[in-house]
Design goal:
single chain, mainly beta, Immunoglobulin-like, 58% strand, rod-shaped
């Protein structure tokens, strides 16, 4: 990690003073006239790659026509950017599917599931420190109509 150089400029009625101070792990210190200035180093919060706080279920089974919601939660600093795919293709919000992301929670909702919605859904979180994913296999069972036939006697 490269040290930070601070430049201090002091002006009073008589004098003008410029000093450079190289920051150490603790801070830096300099003296001007009878005044002593200390600048302390305050460490940033450590950055971290995304983590999965709440993963998608491995498998979800729903019936044709029902609604489904897939939800996952991520950690990481800086806050990760989230994307979804279905069978390797990017998924975006549309009339038949809603994507929401708030407070590190990502939700994919399909209000009315059809057989063509079946597949593997992957939610990926990325930041400058790395990426991680969680996936869910959505299974859609078809509705069957049973007709009872009676012979009239």
């Amino acid at each position: 990690m490269e040290a930070t150089i601070f430049t201090f400029r002091f002006n009073d009625a008589v004098n003008s003073f410029v000093s450079h101070c190289k920051q150490s792990s603790v801070g830096c210190q300099l003296t001007y006239s009878n005044l002593q200035f200390v600048m302390l180093a305050i460490p940033d919060e450590p950055m971290s790659p995304p983590g999965v706080s709440s993963p998608l279920p491995a498998t979800l089974s729903v019936k044709d026509g029902e609604s489904v919601e897939m939800k996952c939660e991520f950690s990481g600093d800086p806050e990760p950017q989230v994307s979804w795919t279905k069978n390797g293709e990017v998924v975006a919000s549309s009339e038949v599917l809603a994507l929401k992301y708030r407070n590190r929670v990502s939700v994919l909702t399909i209000p009315e599931v059809f057989p063509e919605d079946e597949g593997t859904y992957v939610c990926t979180a990325k930041n400058s420190m790395g990426s991680i994913e969680t996936k869910c296999a959505l299974k859609v069972s078809r509705k069957f109509c049973h007709v009872l036939c009676r012979n009239s006697q």
